[in-house]
Every structure is written in structure tokens, then in C-alpha cells.
Write a structure and sequence with these properties.
The structure is a homooctamer. A five-stranded parallel sheet of chain A has the order 8-7-9-10-11, sandwiched between helices. In chain A, α4 runs parallel beside α9. By secondary structure, chain A is of the alpha/beta class. Chain A has nine helices and eleven strands. In chain A, α4 links the parallel β7 and β8. Chain A folds into two domains: 76 residues, no CATH class; 130 residues, Rossmann fold, CATH 3.40.50.1970. Chains A, B, C, D, E, F, G, H: InterPro entries: P2CMN_synthase_LarB, PurE_dom. Chains A, B, C, D, E, F, G, H: This is PurE domain-containing protein. Chains A, B, C, D, E, F, G, H: Pfam families: AIRC. Chains A, B, C, D, E, F, G, H: GO terms for molecular function: hydrolase activity.
């Protein structure tokens, strides 16, 4: 555990891929296009897997100068050298249409790192039959990512339906007492369905990376 | 709107019954037994309906000296002159066994003020079929009180199943991120099920009184 | 409880009308005009009642392409096929002029779903005689929606005057310690007037929908 | 501004009386009886006005060894050498019976420092006619202290009725969303009645001292 | 206490002047220029004292169409018919230059309602000698308004120096842990200097109105 | 998904085992010994796997009357019919000795439901070499549970060392700014190490159940 | 950086002394007397400097079985082998008598680790002349620890008087809006006096350890 | 301690340099260019050391009219008459590239006031070997400033590696549960590494000034 490249503005962790099975993923906010260009170039040269930059706005993405990448605007993801798909089925379920950008990030990152991602949209508990109709799809997944804002009750409902790992992603969808996602976050952490796990608000990225860790174990 | 009795330590609102259909309900905490005795005696003399004192601990209840009352320990309710039952069906649903004391208060107050209360216990969403099995019971109610702690998801699930008024009561059941009921409160306020209303944490009393207001309208 | 239409970006709950007496109401934020167009078209085809989209900004409203709708800018409401008025008198009282947009949403939604809504503006407690002068109007209502920001004291004052259901809507009117509506929310939840119920901050929509549930019971 | 007595465990501000018209008031919590005895003895020797110790529990009070003092248990106040009454009428109004201990502290401190204090109990806004019946009393005061917990709406109502200074004291009366007095505090700070001022939660002492500052000006 | 004018969009409290010595002050935010014009015209016709509108942005101010008014941009205050100066000396002290806009509002409102306001700027406790040099000025005031952001320590320092009423106004000056003024607010409420009172964050208006209440008593 | 037993005070979800591979786990707080006895008896009769009751105090545990159970005091766990060990290695790492009770619950529950749990205590980052010395142990695990209070930095450090799933459990260890575990919770949710997941404060139980979900996938 | 002793219940960081100049300090809460005995014995054997255990209640202290230690009850500190005094003058200033226990911990720890600690008590800003009278003492210190609760203004005042490092320790002294020390903490972090640093609420220990780090630099 | 210049809009503390070794530093936000020009001119005339203005946006900086200054855009710092470098080595370590602006402020201020500042970027704990590789650099510093957002774990890791003073600066880097820097702030305050000190969120300035205080002691 010793390798890194010191670019002055960044110490690129070139050892990450051998340690965790994926190159370091670059956090976009606060970085200038030249810095992203430099870090991505270094990661492509010093590793073999997918290279990703998250939360990149379109104008920044356009100014990054590294050939071979693709940009997904809703997911705000820049990606190079996506991994080949492996046999791990990740189901991403959303409570409402407004949660889509977060789900899009989860799906895009998951796909780029080789998971077989599938989205089920708009199955919030106010019309619980929509969720029940998706029971089979959910139960065939290796893991489920639940993306929900407002009160986040979908996580509990899914948690009670499936036996596989459930990763809950609270979103900032809503207003007033939703407190920009804090309410959904707290609700998911205190779910009456046992064994749910939770990641940061609006972090489709974290959910996909948690799924990657799961896939590492499932592979064995 | 002019009547009250000044007992020195309290101004008893003797006009309340004519204004709102029920005598003033006495909030127990911080009052000495003699004060409760005095206020209750005055209310019994100056009104005709049920006289209630809420949140009374057993030792205080035992020291209140007004004949004809009854005390329910789980509900912590002292009651005199309960109202005759009228035809308003109030269903009180709880998410878990631990929410029972709050539901007990809702049921006891509702009964004392003349509503036909009925409790369905332990229908949390982690096993949603328990709730679905109660659909008929719920749908026959004139109003439903949902009592739930932790993430409070039961309110959303019930809200999606019934068309009648739903009064959500968050409870302090849970620990850590449940923040003594604040999480359930926020979650219920941001429910994706439309038209739910919410009362204060652990306030079975408020839910029953809100139901009383409903019954006033339903009567017409 | 089985029907829904899967439009890919949304699962329209076409069973909602039979379950709850109203078609699903569409939450506008985060949806593109094409998506709103698609969902509304589906709801108009698969149900018979009013179809509403809430919190729609003017530019989005202008781009929604479904004939026969109307748009109310202050209320930010898109509506098709409003329900015929029924005999349920809903009084919407505001504490100040600045609370008007939230009251406007409550009034617009209530009217669209068939309630007889009536607004009394600017009766805050700093000049309590303005409220007392409206006592008769308030007491003749089947339910009162109280819309107030800052300290939200109007809810308690109204709660003490009327016997019918009171639905309190905290607003984000104010600054500093009003904490964008949280103070009014907490104050309304802890009102000394018994039996008030509360909905989310700035949610005129929720208040109208809660009134619709009340009207369902009052109809019997 | 130079005098103080260094007792080792305390630096007694013996200059306070000449600067502010009252000797330093001793904050009781965390002090041992011997320390209180020492400080009070020093203050009696080095000043001429009333000497007070606040928030003293009965067992501590009993162990303080300075002749000539009196102890009021509800107010938790130890006092020596009370000031002669001057012509400043302070009205202390409480929302409910449970707010009495805080009002008792305000009354006891105010009396000890020479104000003419008068208490009106139990005039919460849920029965607003009780407050209106006290209008004359309130309007004859030189200042009003409003003591209220829960949503604290009494402060706004009083603020709208009188033209004199209003000092609002939030109390921790209530449960759940009252957040141990924080809700009343925030509500009072955002009152729609102009020119209210607010002191710390449960601090009858602060209200009385603020009134003392008022009396200083009124005297001129 | 019965008069008000119902303009439809507002119920103007025309009784306020006789009750409290000043016409109702208009809260600007959320009101359209036509509404302000209408309310101000009504107040000028139905009362004799100063008519004020607070927190008005320049473009709105320019569109209000009532002759004889003046607008102060830093204070964001529109005023008609200022009161003649009376003999009440109000000292407004600020901790830093950045607190000036709030102090400007306090000064402008106080002047418009007839108080003799005087500002001392930039006497924060980091250089306490600047404050001590102003001791005489402060001690000659009838009341002091302390305007401070960040940790708000100036309020405690002034509170210890003067015997007259101190009204503390927390400001949102600062960043990070200053939490947009909440830190200064909490600090002022828990000051070790006895008898301070506090108003809402950034509310120079409230401080001036509290001073008006003081002046009412001081006049006698 | 239809089975449950209605005991009056509880609806036992007898379908849980077929849905999720484990019988319902009973949440102890708020249940009387007779209720626990009844529920456990029913679960033993209607399922085949381990039956657990969590957060049971010693005096309650002693009063539960069902033969064949065992009680672990530090973990506060009652267990009947523990599952045979399967080949899933769960490493539980604690930051400090004070985190032990939470880790004990995780270990006890994990063991009872058939996971191979192993604890590494006291490897907080203040002496990071203690953690590095445990690298091999950590890297051989199928999943790691990190139990840490205070600032919870251990989760990030472990997250950077291993590629397998990491379940972070914040604890209430600490004082002051640790806010009873909220600080560790927030810190773990915002870890710079990608793909961590988090459960509720002090919930060793949730971590073990999340691991059970992982084991379900790992088995395939 | 490799040494530690694995006692099973603890991994004692025996390398700490060579890395940081002091043996690991033991955090008392949650540890049994036998565990403290074991850890202290190991630290005494494997290092040469002072061995400390913090936040130990008297009954636990009495049960720890290692010869040669001393216990200070107010400071709740167990100490063995105190360091010889070196020439670093640490001044500990408290705002009020109630802050003494925290200052006592700072003084006791500082003394045990070889600093020359000196306490100035009760110099809160409500009587600022008491602080000014101590200016010389403060200015001769190598570092000042300011211990204050309530609004914590003493930190700003001291910060403005001295040029040496100031370590601010907020305490939980106070009630209501002091929020158990959070208000003082926030106030100290936003002080207008530049270059103050802050440690956790009530942590006299942290302040002393920060001073130890300072002394390390000052020694050169 | 008596000197200051009253410019009307500011009281410039001209005594600061003799008291604390540095002229007053000007806080930029809320000041107009003319005001900054006036204050800086006065400080240059009345003192001999470096004159700094912090948090100045480029357009304001361009409008300040005082010859001889320099502006650093990332640090938002205006500086005149920088101090000669003295022998105090300050190491500024950042967790990620996004923390750079805060580190830039720390470095720029430190350099301007004569410290020998050196930055190590991007050594977050997710790849702890990057930090360990910098151990020697860190251990040779006289003090370390740790700049980190998200969970702020770098502070604990550095605190465990070095014996010199550590000043932790939480940043607002991150989203969701990072709560704009509050999470990093709380985490740093509760670090398991002893003797860390903390300054306000995003305040590179405060860290540099705290280092200046350290250097004052180290000089002796």
C-alpha cells in the first residue's frame, strides 16, 4: 500500500485499484477542468479499470480534455473505460419521478463499474399496489437500492419484502419539513424493517459503490 | 364568550362547553392534587359533559379527591361523567407493541368523549400483509388515528389505503436517530400520501380531540 | 387495488380514484413538461374526476400540452376537469398578507376538488379584534384552514373559537428565528388549543386534501 | 469601576451596586453552601441593597448560614434585605397553571428588588375571553411579563393589547415538539406583535431584572 | 377595540394607534406596490401618527405611489409623517461595520417614531478599550440597542456597563458556526449580564419598537 | 405473504421466515415479560430458525418464561434455537473499549443467526498502527462492522483498507459535541471512503441483520 | 510506530510516548475497574511518563488496584507518576464559580503532565473590571485556557487582551438556550477576537493536552 | 490600551499592534471599497506591521484604492507590507483538492504575517498511505493546520502522528449530511486524538492567526 502520484494539486491514489478492485473515483466539485484532465490522465495510465468523475456540470465536462470518455448529463457522470458487465443484478427503485436524477447517478455509476443495473421508477407507498406488482423483480435482485425523498417510507416497505441487501438513498425531494433530505435520512436510519443500510443524501454514487463492495463478496 | 371561574391558581374556562361542545380538558403535569380537585369540582358543577385530566401519574391520581371518577393507568387518564357513545367509528392503528401507551390514551380519551374507538395493534410496514389484512376494518372507519414511532411509515401506508381523515401521532418509540419522536413527526409531515394531518409527539390526547372535531362535522 | 399505467418515467396510480375518491394529484417539481403532459393525459383517460398538478412554475405550465386545463399563477396550480361544488364550507384564514400564496393554493385546490372555499385574509393576533369580528364566518364553516407564518399564533386563537376541525398550515413567512417555517410548525404542533392538526410548511395543497378527507366523512 | 472582593472561589463584584443600582445577584447552581454563605456575607457587608441567590434547592438553602434571609421554595429564591417597594407596577401573566414556578420566580425577584408585582394566572389563548377580561389590569401596568410554554401565543396576544413594554419568558412546559421550551422561545422571537422582547427559557429571574432596568428609566 | 378597514387583500388595524400609540407598521415582504400603496393611503387617512413600511427593496419602493414619503435604502424603510422628536435618548451600538444595515434600520425606525437615536459604531469586544471609551455616552442613554453578529459578546459587555434597559439584536454577520445569526441569538439569551432582552435576528425594527414601548413608560 | 398470528397485543409475522430467511426479531423495550413470553412461544411454534429478543434488561429477561433460551447481559439479547454456523466471516472492529456493548450486541446477534463473527477491539485512529496491524484480519473478512463513537473516523480508515462491504455503527460514546452519537452518525455518512453504509446509532443489531442480508447474497 | 499491547479488552498504544511525548491517556467512562487496573499497569510498565485516567467516578476510582496513584475528586482524575514541572506557564481563567469542575480538570491534567498551571476564577464579563484587574497575570502566561459556559463571552474578551495562544473550553453551565454548552461552543468558534481555538464542551482534559502540544513547541 | 481612530463608519483599533503583535485585520464582507480604503490607509499610517483584508471578492479588491497592496484571488486576501519570514514552520495539510481555497487562505495569511507556510495537499484517510508518506514532513513542522470537509477524519489521523499543536479547520466541502461543514466541525471537536484544537468552518484565516499566537510563544 504505497503508490500514489503527486500532481501538486492532487495525490492520486494509484494503489486503490489493487486494494479495492477499482481505481479511485474523482469527486468533481471544486476541481478545475485542467485538474480533472490531469487526474484522469494519470488514473488511465496507472490503472486498468473504469475511471469516473462524479457531480460534473455540463460546462466543466465539456472542458475536460481526455479522449474516449462519455458524459451522462442527468447523472452528471464522466466515465472512461467502463468495466465489462458481470453477473450481479442491482435493482434501483424510486419512490417518485422527482427522485430520478439520484437514481440515474446510481444506475450510471453501477453500470460503469460492471454491475447489471435495472431501474423501477415511481413505486411510492401512497399506492402500495404499484410496489407489490414489482415484488418479483425486486426479489430476483442481488441487491436493491431504494431512492426516496419526503418521508422515505419506500425503504421500509422494500425492506420488508426482500431478503437481499437493501441500500437506502435519501433524496432532497420535498420541501418544508423534509429539511432537504434530512427527514428521509433519519427515517431510513430508524426503519422498522431490519438490516437496511443507509448512505448520504442524494448520493446515488455511494449506493453504487456500496453495491460494488457487495458484488466483491458475492463473486466468491 | 364570557364565562370563567377564577380559582386563584386557575381560571377555569366554563364557557368552553358551549363554544366547543366539551368542557375544558385539564392538563395534569405541574398541578398539585388539590388544584386538580378544585378544578374538576368546578368543571363538574359548571358543565354537563365529560371532565378529563390527562397525563396524571398514579400517585397524583390517588390523591385527587372528587367522587365518581375513574383512572386508567396506561392512558394516565382521570375521567368523570363519560359521554354516551355516538355513531362515529374511530380506528386507532399502532405500528408496534411499544406504541401501545399512546394508543391507549387516544382510545381512552375518545371513549370518554363519546366516540366509538377500536384499536388495531402491531401492523407496522415491515410485514405489510398484516396491514393489508386489516384493510376492511380500516376502510369502515370514519377516521383513523395512526400511532407510530421510529420512521412512522405506517401513516403513509394507511393514508394510501383509506379515503377518510387520517390523524398521525408520532411516538417517541425508538432510539438514536429517532430523536425521541422528531423523526417520526417529520416523516409524517412529509408523507407522500396526500391529506394526512399530524399532531404532537406522543399525544394520543390531541388525536382524540381532533377526532372529536371531526365528529362534530360528521354529525350534521 | 391493482391498476396502474406504466409510462416508463412514471407509474400512474389509476386505481387511486376508486380508492380515495380523487385521481392521483401530480407533484410538479422535477418533472419535465413532456412528462406532465403524458401523466395528465393518462389520468384524464383513466379516471373521471379532477386532474391537478401542483407547484408548477409559469414557464413549465405554458409548455404542458393538454387541452382544457387552467393555470393559476399565485397558486401555481394546473387543473383539468374541476369537480362540481358540493356542500362543504371550507374557510381559509390567513394571519398576514404575505401568507396569501399558500392560502391561494389551498383555495385553488379545494375549489378544484369541489369544496366551497372562502378566504378571510389578514386576521393575525396582533389586532385580535379583526379575528373576533370574523367569529361568525368562522363558526359557520365545516372546517377551517389556518395559514400563518412567524409564530403561528393564529392557529391557537382560531382553535379556541371554533368547534369544527382546524387544519393549521405553517408558512415560511418571516426571517431569522422563524427558521423558514419551522417555528410556526412547532408552535402549531404544541398549541394549547386542543385538537388542532397540522400539515407541512407552505402546503396549502395538503390542507385542501385533508379537507377533502373530512368532506368524505361529512357527506355521510 | 474597580472594586471587587477576591474570596478565592469567587470574585465578588462589589462595584455592581454603584454601577447598576443593585448588588450582584448570585447564581446558585454549582455553588456549595459555604461558598454561598461567604459570598452573601461579603455582599451584605459591602453594599446596601437586596442580596439574592437564585435557583437554590431546599437542602442547599437550609445549609446557608447567614442570618436574616428568607427562602421561597417555589421560586427557589434566597433573599436578604429586600428593597422598599417603589411605584412601578409589574404585571406577570401566565398562560397556564403549569407555568407557575417560573412566574413565581419573576414575582419573588421583582418584589425583593422593590417592584410592585402582581400575577394574573391562567389566561392562555385557547379561551381568549379570560385574557380579554384582564385587559384593564394589563393596561394599567408599567410593564408586563408574559410567562408561557407550549406555543407561547399568549405573548403575541398581550403584545397586541398593551402599549407598555412586554417581556416574554418562554417556559419548558409541554412535551414532544415543545422541545423543552425552544418552541415557545422561537415563537416569541418571531411574534407578529411588534416590540416584544424575550429572555431565556424558564428565566423568571431575567424578566424581573429586565423590569428593574425599565424601572430605572421610568423613575426619571 | 373594534376598528379596521377591510381592503380585501388586507385588514388594516385602524384601532392600533389608539391602543398602542402608533399606527400599524406594514411588513413589506410579499406585498405588491399597489397593495402597499392602498394600505399606506388608508393608514394616513385613518390615523395621525407616522406610517412606516419595513424591508422594502428599492424597486418596490420606487413603485409605491403615495406622496410625501421618504425612503432610506440601507434601512430599507419607507416613511410618511415622521413623529416629532421627544426626549428619549436611544443609543444604538454596533460590534462591527458589517452590522451597520441592521443598526441603520433601528436608527431610521426610531427616528421616524420620535425617539432621539444616536449610533456608536464598531465597538466590538476584541478591542474592549473602544467600548470603554464610549462608557459615558452609553450611560447617558435612556436605553441601549446592541447590534452584533458572530458571537454577540458586545451585548454582555454593554449589559455590565449600564443600568438602563438593553435590547440586544443578533445579526447574521459571520459565517460557518455563526449559523446565520442563531449563534449570536443564543449567546445573547444566555448572557451572564442580568436583565438583557433580545429580539429577532437582524430585526432593527423590533428593537426600535421595543424602545418605543419603553418611551411610553418613561414619559409618565 | 399472508400469515400472522394475532395475539391481541401483537400481530406476530409468521410469514417472515419464508420471506426473509429469519423469523421476526422481537424489539424488547416497552414489552412486558408476559408479552415477550407469548410472542416467543408463538414464534418457536410457527417457525424453525433462531428466535431473538433485543434490548432486554436483566430483570425482564429473568421474568420471561420460555424454556431453552439464553441471555447475554452485555448484549442484552435473549436467544432461542441459534442457527448453525455458516461460512460467512464477519469482523466487528471497535474504536475504543467503551464501544464494547454495541459490538457485543452485533457479535451476539450475528452468532445467533449463524454468522462467524470475530471481534477486534480498540483500534481507533489515534494510534493508527494498531489498525494497520490488523489489516490482514480485516482483509480476510467477508464483511466488516465498524463500531465507533466520538468522531467515528475508524469507519473511513477501515473503508480505505478493505474492499468488502463495510457497515458502520455510530455509538453514543463521548460527550458534549458528540451529541449522543449524532456526530459519529453524520461523519460516517459523509465519509471520504466510498461505498460505506451506515445504520442507526448504537444498533449492533441492525449491523448484524445487514450482514445477514449480505450472507444471503454471498451464499449463492 | 508499531508497538501496542493487546490485553484482549484493549490495545494499549505503548508507542504513544515516543511519538507524542506522553503515554496514552485512558478515557474512563465505560471501563470496569479491572480493565482500568490492567491498562494502567501495562502503561506504567511500558512507559516512563505520567499515566492518567480521566472522568473516573469516586466508586470506580476506589476500586482501581494499582499502587502509587492519586485521585482528585472534583477533576475526576486518577494519576500515577506525575511529570516534573517545566517552565511553561498555563493560566486557566473561569467565567464563574460554576465552571470550576472543568477548570479543575484542566488544572489537574496540566499539572500532572508537567505544566505550571495557575487558576484565575470568576472573571466573567458582566463585571469586566475583574478581568481587567487580572490583565498582567494573563499577559505573563505562555497560554491561557478560558473556561466559560452560558454565552462564553469571556473567551473573546481574553482573546483581545493577550497575544499568546488562547484555548477556549465551553462548559455546560447554564440552562434553556445555553443548550448544554452548545451555545458557548458556537459563540467561541465565531469569536470576533482572532486566532482563538476551541475544544469540546466541558473538556478541561482537551485544553490541557492542547497546552501540552504548545509546550512541546515552546520548549525548542 | 487606549488608542483607536474614529472614522465614523469604523473605530480602527490602532492599539492592537502593541497589544498583540499585529495590526487589526479587516473583515471584508459588508464593507464598501471606500471604507476598506479608509481603514487600510489609517492602519498603514498608525502601525508598522502587515495590513490585511480578508474575504474580499475580486470586484471589491479592484476598487480599493491604496497603493502597494497585493491580491490573491483564491485566498480572497488583500495584503500590504507583508512581514519578514521568521523561523516558524507551519504545515497546512488538506484532505482533498476541493479544500484548497480554505488552505490557500491559511497559507496566504500565514505568509503575510511572517510564518513559513508549506502545503501538503490531498492526503485524505481513504488512502492513508498518502498521509503516512508525509509523516516526516508533518513531524518537522512547528504546527500543523488540517483542512478537511466531509467527515474530517484527517484531523484525527494527523493528531495521532505528530506531537506539535494541531489546528483543525472544518470546511464546507461535501453535501447532504455534511451540513455545510457542521459535521466536520463536530467530528473534529470530538476527535479521539487528544489535544486537537478547532476553529470556525472554512476559516483558513483563524487557523493562521492561531498559528501566529503559537509563534509568539515559540519565539521566546
Amino acid at each position: 500500500m504505497t503508490g500514489f502520484s503527486d500532481l501538486g494539486y492532487a495525490r492520486v491514489d494509484t494503489d486503490r485499484e489493487s486494494r479495492q478492485g477499482l481505481p479511485e473515483v474523482v469527486y468533481g466539485p471544486g476541481k478545475r477542468p485542467e485538474e480533472i484532465t490531469g487526474i484522469v490522465t494519470e488514473l488511465l495510465a496507472r490503472s486498468t479499470g473504469p475511471v469516473l468523475v462524479t457531480r460534473v456540470e455540463p460546462d466543466i465536462a465539456a472542458a475536460v480534455d481526455v479522449p474516449g470518455g462519455s458524459y451522462q448529463e442527468t447523472a452528471r457522470l464522466l466515465a472512461w473505460r467502463p468495466a465489462p458487465e458481470r453477473d450481479f443484478r442491482l435493482c434501483v427503485a424510486t419512490a417518485g419521478t422527482s427522485d430520478w436524477p439520484v437514481a440515474a447517478e446510481a444506475e450510471a455509476v453501477a453500470t460503469a463499474i460492471g454491475l447489471r443495473a435495472h431501474v423501477i421508477r415511481d413505486v411510492g407507498v401512497a399506492g402500495i399496489h404499484r410496489l407489490l406488482a414489482a415484488s418479483d423483480e425486486l426479489q430476483q435482485a442481488d441487491a436493491v437500492v431504494v431512492v426516496a425523498g419526503m418521508e422515505g417510507a419506500l425503504a421500509s416497505a422494500v425492506g420488508g419484502l426482500v431478503s437481499c441487501p437493501v441500500i437506502a438513498v435519501p433524496t432532497s425531494t420535498g420541501y418544508g419539513a423534509s429539511l432537504e433530505g434530512v427527514t428521509a435520512l433519519l427515517a431510513m436510519l430508524t426503519s422498522c424493517a431490519a438490516g437496511l443500510t443507509v448512505v448520504n443524501i442524494d448520493s446515488g454514487f455511494s449506493a453504487a459503490m456500496a453495491a460494488h463492495r457487495l458484488a466483491t463478496v458475492a463473486r466468491r
